[in-house]
Every structure is written in structure tokens, then in C-alpha cells.
Amino acid sequence: MSSTKTKDGLSTSSLPSDSVQVDMRDTLTTPHNDPANPFAFTPNQLAALHDPKNLDLLHTYGGLEGVSKGLYADTHQGLTPNITHSTHVTLGDITLDSSKLTVVNSNNTPEIQETPKPQLNKSATFMSTNSRFDPYAQRVSIFGSNTLPPVKSKNIFELMWIAFQDKTLILLSVAAVVSLAVGIYEDIAVPEYDAQGNKIAGVKWVEGVAIIVAILIVVLVGSVNDFQKEKQFRKLNAKKDDRIVKATREGQAIQISVYEIQVGDVLHLEPGDIVAADGIYIEGHNVRCDESAATGESDAVRKQTFEACYRLLHDEKKDDFLSVPNPTQTGSASSIQSISSTKKPTQDHHKSLPDPFIISGSKVLEGVCTYLVTGVGINSYYGRTMMALRTENETTPLQEKLNSLAGMIAKLGSAAGLLMLVVLLIRYFVNWKFDGVPSVATEIVQSVMGILIVVVTIVVVAVPEGLPLAVTLALAYATQRMLKDNNLVRVLAACETMGNATTVCSDKTGTLTQNKMTVVAGSFGSSFRFLQDPPSDRVDLNDIKVIPEKVPAPILNLVNQGICVNSTAFESTDENGEKQFVGNKTETALLQFSRNLGATDFQSLRTRWPVEQVFPFSSERKAMATIIRIPHPVKKGEYIYRAHVKGASEILVENCNQILTLNASKYKSVEHDFDIKTRPLTNEDRNRMERIIQSYATRSLRTLGLAYRDFESWPPVGGHASTIGTETEVPYEDIVANQGLTLIGIVGIEDPLRPGVKEAVKACQRAGVFVRMVTGDNVVTAKSIAKQCGIYTPGGIVMEGPVFRNLPPSEMDAILPR
């Protein structure tokens, strides 16, 4: 059987017979007979969806809805804890016949019918509460937890045996046994008497026992230290892999540890997230993932719903898949290969077909989405890969050098010992000529043993066998001390590697600053400026607390609408039962600002209007946008599409040609809740906005612009929209085309410095370590923060990334020291 991989990442195979194909399909779609498993799937059946991606098998399982029903999961509400499923649901209750999805019309072209919703037996939905200790004990027992089994560690006796394998200790042991035997023999067979003829108690065995005790001490100390070190690093490894992910449970968005993820959970993904478990895409916007770590393909993989992907596959005249185990991956029943045609898909700006499979270990490049978890721990793609790549712990660079040094010293010591042995033996036997041959054999043995013990002592003293161990213990102790200072050392070698560091590049937000952001200043329109606790002599500045009283209601409604819908942060309940915003700190600061303006229930604002498209924040455009459909302000029964945009203030101002007006007379009679009055944005307004941005930046405030734009239709007429599957993608450039945005205002967000940052920077500089700040903030803001930290000093350089990267290497080398 041969196997190839198509450009869209789906595997194809050539099989010797159709009967084998059918047998393998039956294997994957045959209901299991495990009475302890109330779910429709086994871990291997779910793993077969992703390894490799198998769209046809997902269709056979009933698509996303079939899988969620088979897992007793809710794609909207998430899991409910402390539930035990007392009845069984089988594949027969949810699977679909693939022939039902495709029919042939009169033109002999395939037409895709709507996927029928899988129906469950009513008896299969009975649930009861159980599990006093683990709220998801039943799921864990079937599908496992999202942890990998710990690497088998050696017990204390194995470590003692390894420590005893040291060649020096073996040599000492031989000498100790011989010394003990000779001593016992002399004490018993050749007793000694004093001058009065009394027998002297034999103590010659003590020397051998002393050597044995010394060996035991060395072995025990070394093995106990190794045991403690392994125990410490098991804890350290468990902590380094832990992180927080967003999930929906019982209808509430919450944060959970990556170790608490269960099969059936609904997880949230944002740009930059590393996928923690395998799953199936539920819903989202413009999601693309980097799966190069898993597949080796560098192209970003687009994610869409199962229905859209299956329809697109047939629209592209792709043949059905058929899955069989991959014999090259032994021991993995989840290894599947798919039969598909090699017809080339229609060429457009997309390099490959989208798929609904979320692969663990991949990285979200852009977009936001939710997905249903189908594989965790060793049953996930990433887990199986990690288990296959497990190797023995590598020694650190310093340990390798010390081991090499110890080896050279051992050779030198052994050579010196051997030379000493030869010299002493020659001297001893030569002395027989003058002193005579000993009459008792034990005297000869005792003398030779004394010589051997001297030689072994020289070797033992010369060999620093404890030096690498001492270094390891010192590093392990250092990492624990650093952990108490909230400094997690993931790799042991990092401690010694950092000793050679000459430059530290630090982010600003959350590293130099506290990442506790608050809106403290801002401007609505061109004239209404506000500040937290303004000075009494500044009559042009309004207190931030009086905004709800002085700003017209339509503008407040627009601001709250834009902040609430154009955000990925969410509201959660902490351990004390208090509501708090969770997510990006800039967005949580805006949501708190909106709440202070009167938007008490932001969740209802977020769900009030349908979302058409989301442009997640990216470092390239430095902006985020959300398009919602709202009722037409004039034409009853019709709709318009409003794009809310937030991002770098200086960039947003450049893309605006209108600005809000807060003239109170224009708001005396408003036609509706969002009756916004605007006027053209003049050059004077632009200059005023620029001065405001500069003034905020010099006070170390992060500035953020808010803007919007209304469209009569979506996609916009005359735009550059493209369609793939069921999704229509409008490029961000269409939103800001022709400077079409209307500026709402600018806000300044404060993020105070962390305590001790100045002292830490000075300590690094005293140690000869050059500290640089790398941030995506406004240049003026970055410079102001750098001055406060002591990073930027007179003669230093502040430079934007694109400018620096375009410099020739010679100029880079000249600038770097500054």
C-alpha cells in the first residue's frame, strides 16, 4: 500500500482491494461493547478524526452535532460538572450514511443536501449527579485527563545502584573487602599478645569496615540527592506546562487550567494561543492556524465549520474519503489514512482547503473561535507526538564540561596511582633483600593491601566525582529559590546560560508594568476632554465621573456598543463570587470604562446585534474591527452594517474623514438611540488629535482610538470580498478605504510600573547586561516608560522595528551598543 499527502493536508492511499477499505471503515464505525463507557466513542475512534484529518469519518459520525451528542456535550452551554450518564448512546444512534449527503441531479453533478441532525434515543439523555470528588470522573476514566504520564523515575534503590557503578567506588569496594577479609583473618588466625602474654583484642578488621562505611555514605548521599532533585524537577515540570485557557461550562465563560480540560469541553481560541487539545471547530471568524509543528507544512491552515468544509469538498469535485489504519505508525489505532482524489482545487487566493479539525500543539495565527474538545492527554495529536519523542534528560553544558574535566582528572589520577603502585611494590620487594622475607604470609598480604589502599586513596582524592552532582544540586536549588520570586526556570541549563548573557530584551506590558490598566483620560469628538481627578485650574478638562451627565445619550450608546461588541474579553466570577473581566488587559480596561459610563449589562449588548465578521487584532494593522448588523435608522424593516474599529490612535486618525460632534443643540431632539451627529474631520482637528496623543504618550499612557463606519450592505459594494465555503471574507482594507471611518474619540490607558523595576534595571546595568525594551506601543509612550525605568538614557536611541530591520548590517552593529 502506498500513501501520499495532498496539498490540503488530507492523506490519500492506494489500497490493494475494496474489501480492506470496507473492513477498516467497519472497524471505525462499529459501536464499542464496553459496558463502562456510556459514550458513543472510544478514544481511538475520536483520535482517528485527526490523525490524519478525516472529513468523511467526521461526516459518518454525524458531523459536529453527532460527535457532541455522542459525548453528551453541548456546543453552546459547555459541560456540566458532577454528571454521570447512566445510559449508553451508541454510534448507531448518531452515525449517518454518507450516501444521504450527496445526490446526483439531472446534469449528473453532485448536489449537497442539508446534513440531517442526528437523533438520539430519548432514553439516552438521562443524567444523574454523581462523583463526590472529581466532577468529571466518568469522562476521565474513559478518555483520560489532559496530562501526559510522568516519565518513569528511578526509586532510591535504583539510584543507589547507579551511584555504586562509579569505577572508583568499585575499586574502593574491592579494596575494602580484601582489607576486611585480611583483617578478620589476622585477628582470628594470627592473634597478637602483649608483653605479659595477654591476648590483644583484634581491631584490624576496623579498617575494612571504615572503608565500607565511607562507600555507603557516598552512595547514600549521592542517591538521596539525586532522588530529591528528580522530585523537585517533577514538580517544576508540572508547573511549567500549566497555563490558563478559556472555556464555556454551564453556559458561563470561565478560565481553567490546561490540566482540567475534558473531552466534551468547549474552549475559546484567540490569536497567539497554543491549542491545548484536539477538537472540532464550532464557530468563529477568520481562523487560521500554524500546524507546521505537527504536519511540517508552513502554510497557515484556515478553519471552518464541518458543514462548510464538507460542502466545499464536494463543490471542488473531490471524491469521498475512506479511512484505513496507517501501518507505518505501529501501536496507534488512531492512525488513519484517507482515500481522496488528487484533483486540484479551484485556484484562488487561498492556498488550501479549510478544515474543521483543531490540532493540539498548533498555534492560532489569527481569528477567534470556539471548538469542541475530542482528544486530551496521550489521546491527542500533541500527546502522542510527545510520548514518541521522550528521551532521557540531557546534561547541561556545564555538566558536560565538568564531566569531561572529571574524566581527564580521573585518567591522570589513575595513571599516578598506577605509577605509585609499581614504585611501592618494587620498593617493598627490594626491601626483602635487606629486611628478609616475611615468615608469615599474612604479613605479605597485609603489606600489599596497605600499598593498594594508599594507591586507591590517591585515585579517590584525585577524582572529583562529586563535582557534577554538586553543580546539579546548586542549579536545582537556585531554580527553586527563583520560583519563590515568581521566576520560573523551565530548563535547568538556562541558569548557567544566563550567566553569559550580555543583553536582555524585555516587553513593556506586564513585564516592566503591572498590567493593571485603567482608562484615566480621553477625548470624545474634538472638544470634550476628560481626565481622572483633573486640576481645579483646568476648566477645559472634565472629570471622568461626569461623562454620563455631560455626554449626549446617543454618543454614550455608540461608545458602549463599540466597546462591548468589539472585544474578546468576557465577564467571569472569581472565587469570592464577585464579577470580574477576564482577557486582554487593554480590553478589560475598556469594558470597565464602559461599565462606568452606564453599560451595566455588557453581555446583553454583545448578543443584541448579529455579528457579520470579526477582524481580530494583529500587530500588522494594529487594530481590531467587528461588523454587526443593526436596524436601519430610517427605513423600517431594513438593516445597515456597522463596523466598530479600535486600535493605535495615530493610525485610526489617519483613516478617518468624519468626527463626532457633541454640540448639545443638535441632540435636543433625537430620532433614535443611535442618532449620531458628525462633521468633516479638518486638518485643525487632526492636529488637535495629534497633540492629545503626544500629551498622553509623554505621560506614559497607552493611547487607543475608537472609530466606526456604516455600510448599506455587507459585503460592501465595490469591495474586494472573496468567498470560500460558506464564509465570505472582506479584507480589512475595505473598511478603512478612502479614509471612510468616523472618529469617536481617543482614550488614554494607564499601566503603572512594577515595584522594583528601576532597581532591577540598575542591577543588570551594573552587571554589564544591556537592557532593551521591545514593545508595540506608540514610540513616545515607549520612550516615556523607558525613561522611568532607566532603560533610556541621554544618547540612547529609540527606533521602530521596520526602520531597524531595513538598515544594512554595518549600521545595525553601530547602533546596537546604544
TrEMBL record:
GO terms for biological process: intracellular calcium ion homeostasis. The keyword DNA damage does not apply. Residues 332-341 have a biased composition (Low complexity). It comes from the Eukaryota. GO terms for cellular component: endomembrane system; plasma membrane. Keywords: ATP-binding, Magnesium, Membrane, Nucleotide-binding, Transmembrane, Transmembrane helix. This is Calcium-transporting ATPase 2. It comes from Choanephora cucurbitarum. The gene is pmc1_0.
